[in-house]
């Protein structure tokens, strides 16, 4: 009998609020995702290049940067330009967010419903844009 190989999707969460980061991490791990978390953007690109995530969840308001600037950094780097990004924010809503030139694959205002988060992640990993 051949053993089935399960590949877990890797998700990088960049969120400065430790409570939110912990909750997202626990929820995603319970859904069999491999999760890494960063609470600031300083080593983000190095971390992305080392861990090669399948999806990045990126907060807009970080203590050392703006998530939209980080999104531009991800999108303009040939090694990371195709990694899907789900942006989250407590300050902005889908109506008032100004993404600029580079768009994320999805956006979710905080506080968000756990099922909405999981639906967005599954959809984005399946190739959808929200």
UniProtKB/TrEMBL annotation:
The UniProt record lists the keyword Phosphoprotein: yes
UniProt cross-references to InterPro entries, sorted A to Z: Bact_response_regulator (IPR050595), CheY-like_superfamily (IPR011006), Sig_transdc_resp-reg_receiver (IPR001789)
Residues bearing the modification 4-aspartylphosphate: 59
Keyword Phosphoprotein: yes
Keywords (A to Z) from UniProt: Phosphoprotein
Domain Response regulatory: from-to ranges: 10-125
GO BP: phosphorelay signal transduction system
Protein's UniProt name: Response regulator receiver
Organism of this sequence: Pedobacter heparinus (strain ATCC 13125 / DSM 2366 / CIP 104194 / JCM 7457 / NBRC 12017 / NCIMB 9290 / NRRL B-14731 / HIM 762-3)
Lineage, opening ranks: Bacteria, Pseudomonadati, Bacteroidota, Sphingobacteriia, Sphingobacteriales
